[in-house]
Design goal:
This protein is an alpha/beta fold and 392 residues long. 34% of the residues lie in helices and 23% in strands. It has 14 helices and 16 strands. Strands 1, 2, 3, 4, 7, 8, 9, 10, 11 and 12 form a 10-stranded mixed sheet that branches. Strands 5-6 form a two-stranded antiparallel sheet. It has a two-stranded antiparallel ribbon with strand order 13-16. A hairpin with a 7-residue loop joins strand 10 and strand 11. The longest helix has 23 residues.
Length: 392
Amino acid sequence: MIKVSITKCNNYNIDNLTDSISQCINNLGGILNYVQPQETILLKPNLLSDHTPDRAVTTHPEFVRAIVKLLKNNKVTPIICDGPSTINVEKVYQTTGMEKIAREENIKLVNLSDYKINEYIPQKFVFSNISKIYISDIINQVDGIISLPKLKSHSLVTVTFGIKNLYGLVPGLIKSDYHRFLHNPVNFVKLLVEILYIIKPKLRLTVIDGIVGMDKEGPANGRVRNIGIIGASEDTVALDTVLCSMINLNPDTVPLLRFCKEKNLGETDYKNIDVLGNKVKIENFILPQTHITNYIPEFTAKFLLRFIWWKPVIVNKKCMKCLKCIEICPQKTIKKESKKVKIYQKNCISCFCCNEICPYGAIKIKFSPLMNLYYFFVSIKNKIKNFLGKKH
């Protein structure tokens, strides 16, 4: 059976982290089951954009430090790298704390722009408007990869755990082009499956930072909340499956996991997964409102999505005119006009790249009247349920 390990951890104290991460990996047989002395291992955290660690948008730097120390203690050479969707990668490394960790631990922190880009032909799906997938050659310059994702919700793909974290190995602003060509969430999810297929031979282990995570409208502007877990597995699909079950989300309703199952890229049947350590439930994990589209059959989607939609809007009181949203927008629908930044909705494809990149939480999601009505009744239903539960 495929093994997934879950351990409890409630803070980022380095001694506590080191013990908890070691216990989590030891449940799987120990770190030397996945790496060998003298190897060079790429640590791939989630560094979405230049948010400070307290925002819970990025993998916490002390979490990365604990993995670095574990590898160095076993004579393994770690390097840190990610491909955030911005020109100023150095600022992302500085703000997220990665530059400090690399300096203090005397390890390399590399920029994907320093490596050539490799082209891959899609193997699992046929795309009408892309013929090649671009991945940084860094995956061929290391012996293996350990993925260090952050446990968060995600407005486009429902959740971002282990599988989605690998998208960061697509260099920089190429990711924006993929959002433009594959703005339909189903096609975008298929791209993530292709990326997993390409990277999987080098992927040794996934260890997720679920100590402080995010729900509601993640991955950048949701609700920061204490979750208190660390999860690990050599099968990132199995780990994602277990985490979905822990937040009371049926893995069969998550398109990303459905497609991974269809293409045999990992275990999605809970009966075939041995969950070791702490089998806990994450209570009241609130998914983004957009996740209801997962339940819309593809053959009716075009009709229903006329009435069920969501668009980004700028809250000008919060906007600091950093213009990162303009830089990243794949459709170039965001413009600076006089003293305001404006999104022209006509050509917006609702990829939410702007929402993800904004460091000030100035881009919110506006929902269609039908979606607002649906969630109004859902909230009433939940209040009645909670009231009746308290009475009994």
